[in-house]
Amino acid sequence: MAELGKLESTVMDVLWHADEPVLVRDVLEALTTDRALAYTTVLTVLDNLHRKGWAVREKDGKAYRYRPAGTREQMTARALRQVIETSTHPDLVLLHFARSASDRELHILKQVLHERESGG
């Protein structure tokens, strides 16, 4: 995830694998990192993910429960959209991407373009 740091990406993995919204302590227990993390560190990361629009939170007593704002694929597409929109030359970014796309990726793009052209 280009928009996320390493720890943020790891926390998002926990959220994407959770079956339901989770508390900070649930995330802390599920994290597998090479160093011990403080509760407040995980809380700060989750707050940052919420602020960035990657996580949604809902009040549960005095705490919050967190869940992803979308699937991994939806959020990756959103990050790609932001890269394109913030470029000074989005047309060139798309051109370079299309030239570097695999045959499978080009096939998918052609399918989507066909669907859009036919109103589907």
TrEMBL record:
InterPro entries: BlaI_family (IPR005650), WH-like_DNA-bd_sf (IPR036388), WH_DNA-bd_sf (IPR036390)
Gene Ontology biological process: negative regulation of DNA-templated transcription
Superkingdom of origin organism: Bacteria
Keywords: DNA-binding, Transcription, Transcription regulation
A GO term for molecular function: DNA binding
Classification via SUPFAM superfamilies: Winged helix' DNA-binding domain
Pfam families for this protein: Penicillinase_R
Family affiliation: Belongs to the BlaI transcriptional regulatory family.
Name of the molecule in the record: Putative transcriptional regulator
